[in-house]
Amino acid sequence: MSIAAGSRLGPYEVVSSIGAGGMGEVWRAKDTRLDREVAIKILPPGLAENDQFLQRFDREARAISSLNHPNICTLFDVGHENETHFLVMELIEGESLATLLSKGRLPLDQVIRYGAQIAEALSVAHRNGIIHRDLKPGNVMITKSGAKLLDFGLARSAADSPVQGLTEMPTQARPLTAEGTILGTFQYMAPEQLEGLEADARTDIFALGALVYEMSTGQRAFQGSSKTSLIAAIVAQHPEPISSVTKMTPPALDHVVNRCLEKDPDDRWQSAHDVASELRWISEAGSQAGVARTLTVRRRNRERIAWTLAALTAAGAITAGGLLLARSDPPRQLIESSIDLPDGMRLAQLTGSISISPDATTAAFVSSQSGTGGQTLWLRPLSSDTFRQLTGTENASRPFWSADSRKIGFFADGKLKVVDTQGGTVTILCEASAGRGGAWMRDGTIIVALDTRGPLFSLRAEGGAPEPLTRLRPGDKAHLLPIVLPDGNNFLFAINHEEVGRSGIYQSSLEEPETILPVAPGSWEVASVAPDILLLQRENSLLAQRHDSRRAQLVGNAVTVTDRFLLFAAAADGTLLLKRNPNLVLSQLVWVDRLGREEEELAPPALFFSPRLSRDERRLAVDISDPLYGSGDIWIFDLPRGSATRLTYDNANESSPQWSPDDRQVYYAGYAGAGNIFEVPAGGTGEPQTLVADERDKRPTDVSSDGQWIVFDSYGTGGDDIWVWSASEKAHRAWLATPFREKGARFSPDGKWIAYQSDESGRWEIYVRAFPDSDRKWMLSSNGGIMPVWSGDGKELFYVSPDDKMNAVTITPGSELDAAAPEPLFDAPLRFHGNTQYEVTSDGRRFLLNRRVEESADESITLLQNWQIRLASK
Q1: What b/e readout covers 371-380, taking b as 16+ CB neighbours within 10 angstroms?
Q2: Most buried of 11, 40, 296, 689, CB within 10 angstroms?
Q3: Is 123 helix (H, G, I), strand (E, B) or coil?
Q4: Measured between alpha carbons, how far is 18 from 41 in angstroms, rounded to an integer?
Q5: Quick one: pLDDT band at residue 17, thresholds 50, 70, 90?
Q6: Quick one: which of 101, 102, 122 has its CA closest to 110?
Q7: 872 vs 36, which has greater pLDDT?
Q8: How far apart are CA 29 and CA 35, in angstroms?
Q9: Strands of the 8-9 sheet, one edge to the other
């Protein structure tokens, strides 16, 4: 049947053409029964003649027609007239999102508004068992009332292969770039769709993340010059953060979109409703409550914001203090000293047990003294070695100083108390059943967390009833651990949320406490703050990193200040107090024979990692880490002379040294940001040069005997894999990439085989594969194994079993690998680390072990002054 203006399809009178495309023609029409304008789409004859498709089409169309939501284009009817099959849809006045995006990115308020509306539309469909499967800008119309979503679940042929959406307007199908329609479709597909797996609601959530990313930045989240490269980007790469492309983007939007774009569906938001709620929350806590003002009008206040996670159900304190690192006259010398506690005094092993006064003259300690009962507050001037106990502070915890450094607030016996440091009486301010941190503003206001649940309260230092300051939002369990920012008005605090991903550090102010700006949902814990430097605690590491207060984001690379510590406190002048972790594990380099009998100690115990013998076995390259700062450098031991020299000097961590075949170069992993591979002359006369660099962390594990290949562990999206770098091609590529973890690869002396460890069996085992082809493999260990090393003649392969035994496997040379059963040799209690922690001489007779050494507890406290000199080069 030929369609033209004036034609009739049942009760519908065709008025004019809207457009045409590969999936049919779309016409403006009038429903003569209801006197309303509609859009009619004529199905192409090829589909209309397929009975199987028509049956499925009719079934799905009727399900979708039941959807009733203001952000969903309503499907009114499905009909046929003679040989013509058609859809009757709501006529939408507006323009497609694709058209809008062709002009550039959208304003933030529109991004959040449209994103939330699309998410709600998806949520309604998902609750009705309908998956969109083809969400993209061409399937979203923007009207005066907001976003309208088209094409729900009808984009399937009878063979179940994706085709263009049946309710998609033909004029909206053009891509925003010149790649063509194939790339336009693939751009928004989730990894599981590309793998041919069944789509579910989380598949739509991935596409939603890509859509919000494009609205925010004006560019697509995943791009490629070909279909193959685009698929590779979707499966293995993460897009650049929105905030890196579009300035002034709230960090919370990055968080929402990044989680939508997780490769594994289980790691994404599990419902579109959650995404809509998150976006609305950003709007409520941002645009309506001051995000725009905070980021623009009030940028002169330079909000100091930092990363954290609250492992908040356990006690965790955030120490206040500024760190003036941006100085016109930077310090020239790092001063390190030790504070020894008096006999019988033991420092409380809880975060928040050390606090430095704002004027950096005095430290407060929560300590117990044998014979004096429980823990109390003790003061020690930093210029003196005298400790003074503050009477009336029994059972004290979490001390925090007044801005003038004269008083200390603390919690004890279910109360919030204040003591004058000059000997005044203790004053009870209010009830605090389980205090979780306090902050003392310059105007005399105290912000305090009175319990493990509830909001923050404020009260005057001179007394008065506490009043709620912040307000719990849906899902918030508690607001805790406030920190005063240097401007005297803004403060940071931690939120413990029912959803782990929303627990973290947030910012507010005394002027606008209803404004809660998300800073860093995630796994970080803030320990101190300065005008443009943050001290961040992650596990046992203390990191320093600059932050852009206007964008409320960390910038640049984090620098390790110290490692393996329990407690610390900082002051603005560069004073830092540290209590080291008594469980610090040192190691010792020891020579043993094949029976494990000790022959020689190479050096006293230290933080040794990854020893590697030179090819002539006269030198040893090893990572020696600073026990205070945690960052490592490569050192070279001259074995005949018994001397050691430092090879690298960077403030970041350098590890995993490997020798070139002629022993003239050392390759190593450098961790200034992402871990890359560098090379440096072994004699120490040249500057390091970058050899291999990309977004994945890398760790070299061996160099082939001919020098043509470097094999390295590569960590990133897609798992832990083994990659190689080709000297002839000056390029690197994946050599062994599977769904399992593989690492620790070592070349056989003849270069025909690679030994490595993999967990494909469910635990670490030792495997050997042919090289460069990797299609043949053999498992050599029998009951678990790590750290493979070849003998110099290639006739033995050594590894360490789970019971700390050194094992040897005899290898018979040939075109195929002929390996005997493993033979246990001796006990090898090595340092446990990702790298190989031993070496073997070429004759297989001597082993150099990086053997664990237990360290006794150290009760002293380290005092650092001018520690920020370590950031001078950053």
Answers
A1: eeeebbbbbb
A2: 40
A3: helix
A4: 10
A5: confident
A6: 101
A7: 36
A8: 10
A9: 8-9, 12-21, 24-31, 36-42, 84-90, 75-81
DSSP states along 709-772: EEEEEEEETTEEEEEEEETTTTEEEEEE--SS-EEEEEE-TTSSEEEEEE-TTSS-EEEEEESS
What is the model's pTM? 0.42
C-alpha–C-alpha distance, residues 252 and 185, integer Å:
28
Q: Could you list the active site residues?
A: 134
SS3 831: coil
User: Are the CB atoms for 730 and 747 separated by under 8 Å?
Assistant: no
**Packing angle between helix 272-285 and helix 108-127, nearest 10 degrees?**
150
**Strand partners for 236:** none
**Which helix (H) or strand (E) covers residue 586, if one does?**
strand 586-593
- The rounded distance, in Å, linking the Cα atoms of 126 and 113 is 20
Whose CA is closest to 213, among 97, 384, 340?
97
- What is the arrangement of strands in the sheet containing 742-747, beginning at the earlier edge strand? 742-747, 753-758, 765-770, 777-779
Tell me the two tokens of residue 696. 């994945």
Burial class of residue 793 in the structure, from the number of CB atoms within 10 Å of its CB (0-12 exposed, 13-18 middle, 19+ buried): middle
**Taking residues 761-790, what's their average pLDDT?**
91
| Residue 195: CB atoms within 10 Å | 10
Token digits for 109?
């308020």
Q: How far is CA 148 from CA 177, 278, 830, in A?
A: 23, 20, 62
Q: How many CA atoms lie within 13 A of 15 on its CB side?
A: 13
Token readout for 619 is: 């030198």
